[in-house]
Specification:
This protein has helices at 8-17, 44-50, 72-101, and strands at residues 21-23, 27-28, 35-38, 55-57, 64-67. By secondary structure, it is α/β, with parallel strands linked by helices. The chain folds into two domains: 3-67, no CATH class; 70-111. The strands form two sheets. A three-stranded mixed beta sheet has the order 2-3-5, with no helix packed on it. Strands 1-4 form a two-stranded parallel ribbon. It starts with 7 loop residues before the first helix and ends in a 10-residue tail after the last helix.
């Protein structure tokens, strides 16, 4: 990527930070204009500074936020888990109603 391909805003802010490394956002929120960074980058600048690297985020702290993206597998597992729990709960409710009515087909009860 040549210098001509880098937008002026990014170049100006990067120079303004005075940092050797500038962490760029994944995107810029269209409504707020704030930089959106992945949660994985939350402590990146801190870790780099601990290693002696002069690093900064492109956006000032008031102009950036971090987002978490949940994996599809976690969402699927949660959905399946809720389905199992609700099915078990429904089975328990039906069993309770049958016991209360005295219509239980429980083999341990003698008739």
């Amino acid at each position: 990527m040549s210098d001509e391909d880098i937008p002026d805003r990014i170049r100006a802010r990067a120079v303004e930070t005075g940092a050797d490394i500038v962490i760029l956002p994944e995107r810029v929120d269209e409504q707020s204009g704030k930089g959106v960074y992945a949660q994985d980058n939350l402590l990146l600048v801190k870790r780099l500074k601990q290693e002696g690297v002069n690093a900064e985020y492109l956006d000032a702290s008031a102009d950036r936020y971090f987002v978490t993206q949940k994996s599809a597998i976690l969402l699927l597992a949660g959905t399946i888990g809720i389905g199992i729990v609700s099915s078990a709960a429904w089975g328990g409710i039906k069993k309770t109603v049958l016991l209360v009515r005295g219509n239980s087909h429980d083999p341990s009860r003698s008739t």
